[in-house]
TrEMBL record:
Originating species: Elysia marginata
Keyword Transferase attributed: no
Name under which the protein is recorded: Nuclear receptor-binding factor 2
GO BP annotation list: autophagy
InterPro entries given in the database record: NRBF2, NRBF2_MIT
Highest taxon above the source species: Eukaryota
Region (Disordered): 236-255
Domain Nuclear receptor-binding factor 2 MIT: 20-84
Sorted UniProt keywords: Receptor
Record keyword Transferase present: no
Length: 282
């Protein structure tokens, strides 16, 4: 009596019996490897593995004739592509947080003065903005005093300084564009009235212009740095809120050991009871 099992038109072997080097098995291997990279927060490597798994799964789909298996592989392929998009977004978000932290540390070091020892430490040295702006005001006072010694009336510079203050981060500093114009015009008049060779007068005028110009660049640079610092702090707070409060997601360092389990996996076998009547053509 002929049974269902030994009927020549039916094959009761496992529906998928893949060797270790088959595209389907390699796709699952790369998928497991991508999961390991993701757990160790190595997102770039995980993206590469997911992309490779998707490519291998497409190769396996080209050699499969079962419509049910094709549907299953198509869903798995879609899942791989979705993981790639999610890891891309997460990697970009972490890069933004990292760049924001580095920019904040760089601005903090750039605003340090000679009175503060600029040493390399793990924690950036905080600099009070009020101290920095006070130093800038003192610098302008020194230049003002220099022009006073050359005959400028004290009330002229004082009026210019009082009218040219503006605020950055709650602190006011003089607008060097206006004080620069005052210094140039006053000192140029004094040099023209002084007795001496024309070359000496030209050199003194040129030197005064350079001093005022450098002071203006210094004040402008400090203002820009502090404005950028305030902006970066706000962006960092917003990014940290989006990222969440999990400290393990905020740090991805090379010191973390990456451990792999054995990838010598047995051939994958899939059995679907509802597909027992399908015949796989080899």
């Amino acid at each position: 009596m002929e049974t269902y099992a030994n009927h020549p038109d039916h094959d009761i072997r496992p529906l998928v019996q893949a060797p270790m080097e088959s595209p389907l098995n390699l796709a699952h291997t790369y998928s497991r490897r991508a999961d390991m990279f993701t757990r160790n927060r190595k997102y770039d490597e995980a993206i590469v593995c997911h992309r490779r798994a998707a490519e291998l799964l497409l190769q396996a789909m080209n050699t499969t004739t079962s419509s049910a298996l094709l549907d299953s592989m198509a869903l798995q392929h879609k899942a791989y592509l979705s993981q790639i998009d999610k890891l891309h977004a997460k990697s970009q978000l972490l890069d933004l947080v990292d760049r924001s932290a580095k920019t904040t540390a760089t601005v903090s070091r750039a605003t340090q003065t000679d009175g503060i020892h600029n040493v390399e430490t793990k924690q950036p040295i905080a600099v009070d903005e009020g101290t920095v702006f006070q130093i800038l005001r003192e610098n302008d006072d020194v230049i003002t005093h220099f022009f006073h010694l050359n005959g400028q009336k004290p009330e002229d510079s004082q009026i210019a300084l009082d009218k040219s203050h503006f605020s950055v981060g709650g602190h006011s500093i003089p607008n060097t564009l206006e004080t620069q114009s005052l210094y140039k015009s006053t000192f140029s008049q004094k040099v023209c009235q002084a007795d001496g060779p024309p070359n000496l007068a030209d050199n003194m005028t040129r030197s005064s212009n350079e001093v005022v110009k450098m002071n203006g660049k210094l004040s402008s640079t400090v203002r820009s740095l502090f404005q950028e610092l305030h902006t970066n702090k706000m962006e960092k707070e917003q990014l940290e809120q989006k990222l969440g409060d999990n400290p393990h997601q905020k740090k991805q360092g090379p010191e973390e050991a990456l451990k792999f389990a054995s990838l010598d996996l047995p051939p994958l076998e899939a059995s679907y009871p509802e597909l027992s009547n399908f015949h796989l053509q080899s």
